[in-house]
Amino acid sequence: MNLKKNWKARSLLAASLGACLLAAQTPAAAQAPWPEKPITMVVPYSAGGPTDVVARMLAIPMGKSLGQTVIVENTVGAGGTIAPARVAKAAPNGYTILIHHMGMATAPALYKKLNYDPLKDFEYVGQVMDVPMTLLSRKDFPASNFQELLAYVKTNKDKVTLANAGIGAVSQLCGMLFAHQIGVQLTTVPYKGAGPALNDLMGGQVDLLCDQTTQTAPVIKDGNRVKVFGVTTPRRLSSMPNIPTLDEQGLKGFDVKVWHGIYAPKGTPPAVMEKLNTALRAALQDDMVKHRFAELSTEAVPMDKVTPEALRTHLAAETEKWGKVIRAAGVQAD
């Protein structure tokens, strides 16, 4: 009997130890490695537009860092607000992320109703880049320099058309600021993306466009497809030093740069956010990405801005800044 009792006791002890060991291992086993499948990077604008170009430049090196494909998906409409709303409602697992420009900061003032709150419904991966903008015209526009442009626009303001990529697009904001600063009302022509707007400018269907160098630099460098009247940054661009700034030509304080950031749904686990941030930082230091950025007259933000905290702070500041400008202009969409 003693032998039987000892055997039973040992069996119970072994079973108990096994259960404890299994329980101890369960949390680690439950944490499956991430990512296990492709990640979708949602772009609020059409394929071929400036934000799409940036997304596709980052997708390959980010995917390489993460060990999974990063798929770029264009979800267009409603001035770039459909895509953020979709990502805000996506499962918070890191498999659906958003790349967006300063439209994240302007949307709260531009739209009466939003299906998301940029400051509450997202986790922040990090800032990406600051993109300069350029003021262009069709190649046969009557003016040959900025002073002639101002004179012509003020005299013919009812005839001049100003294209943009749609309500909420940075091209709309830049054009609105330009018109406000020179004191005229221009006829705006909204498009479904920057690509179609630029195509019609080159085709002579519209007169003016203010858009990002990621879109305009190639046609400017081509030399005979558009006229360029200035860049929107306080300093000239090293890649196009012969183009003066709007500020130095008389529009004092004119400074519009398009910043981009990457976001994930609120509640995405910190470990996943850390991996996304690491992948973004690696992508921005990739030699091919740096080369492509230089070709498009832009560059990545400093690494101390490629953080969740920096993007969160910048978004809040830009929301306040552009909110004042938009409300003062009386521009709002339904």
From TrEMBL:
PANTHER family xref list: BLR1237 PROTEIN, TRICARBOXYLATE-BINDING PROTEIN
Domain of life: Bacteria
UniProt keyword terms in alphabetical order: Receptor, Signal
Signal sequence range: 1-30
Species of provenance: Variovorax paradoxus
Family: Belongs to the UPF0065 (bug) family.
Protein name according to UniProt: Tripartite tricarboxylate transporter family receptor
